[in-house]
Specification:
single chain, alpha+beta, Creatine Amidinohydrolase, Chain A, domain 1, Creatine Amidinohydrolase, 2 domains, six-stranded mixed beta sheet, three-stranded antiparallel beta sheet, 19 strands, elongated
Amino acid sequence: MNTETRLARLRERLREQELDAIVITHPSNRFWLSGFTGEDIPPNESAGHLVISQHEAILVTSRLNSTLAQQEAHGFRIFDRERDFARGDATVLQELGARRIGFEDRAILYRDVRVLEETLGQDVELVPVGSLVDDLRAIKTADELERIRQAQAITDTALEAVLADLRPGLTEREVALRLERALMEAGADGTAFPIAVASGPHGALPHYRPTQRPIGVGEPIVIDMGAVVGGYCADLTRTVWLGTADDQLEQIFAIVLAAIEAAEEGIRPGMTGREADALAREVIVGAGYGDAFTHSLGHGVGVRVHEAPSLSPAADHVLEPGHVVTIEPGIYLPGWGGVRIEDLVVIREQGIEVLTRTPKRLTLPGG
C-alpha cells in the first residue's frame, strides 16, 4: 500500500482549501491513508484517529493498539491518547500549531467536535470537509484494482462451490453459512457485508438477513455476497432457482437480465450516474415494473462496499476511468419475491470491464 502517494494527494487538497491540518475519523479513510487495520465498534468506540498536516502524519490511538499501529502505519508517528480521542487529537493539533483544521463532518461524534472547539479555543477554526477523502478514493490504482479483482474471483468461486450442492430443504441460514465458509476456504480475509440468502417472498426485501426458512423448488432465491481481500471488497448478486421456473419468474428474470445488459452495453466514461441508472431503469419502466425497482442501479466499491460514485436517479457525479461500480437492477414484488442480478465492473476509456465471472443465468437441478 503506497500511503506516501495518498498522503501527497491529500496534502495537495489541504493546500487548495488553505487547511493547516485535518482530523480523519472515518475508519475506511483511516485505513486508506495509513494501512492501520484496528477494529472499531461503531458508533462510539474508535480504534484511532489520524491527524495530518503538511509535514506530519500522526495516528492517535490507545496503548492496546500501539504495537499493531507501529507495524502497519508506516511513516506515521504513533500518539497514545491518555483520555478520549478528541482530547488526544487536540493535544497533537496544539503541538502542530494548526489554526485552520478540517474535520470529517460525516464521520465524527458531535461530542468530539465540541471537545475540539472547547479545547482548541476561539483562535482555531474547524472546517467541515464533507467527502474530501472519499472522493480521493474513488478512482482506483492498479494495485487497488488487483485486490478488488482477487476479491471478486474468490466470491465467484465460493458461489459456484455452494450452488453445486444446493438442494430443497436447506434453510436460508444454512446456505449463508456455507457461502461464508466457502469464501474463507477460497482465500477471503472476511466478508464485505452480511451474506443475504432470500428465498421465495423474502426476495422482495432488497436488504435481508437469512432465516430458518427452507428453500423450495421453482421459487426465486436472491443471493448477495462479497469477499474482502487486503482490505478491498467485492459484491455479487445472483437470482437462482431449483428446477423449473414458472412463467412469472421467467418473465421477471428476463426483464432484469435485459436491464443489466442494456446498462453494461451503454455505460461510458463521461456520463453521469443519473444517465447510467436510466439505461437500466428505462427497460424496467418500459416493462411496467418501474415502481418495483426500488433502489439505485449501483454504487462504488473499494475499501467500503458502498462508496463513491453512485449510479442513481439523483447522481450528478461524472463516471471516470478507474471507478469501480456495481450494476444491479432488480424487481421486487411483495408477497411473491424478487429478482436482482449484480455485476462488479471497472469504468474504462471505451466502456466497462466486467470483473464478475459467474454467469448471469444459472441452471440448477430440482433436487
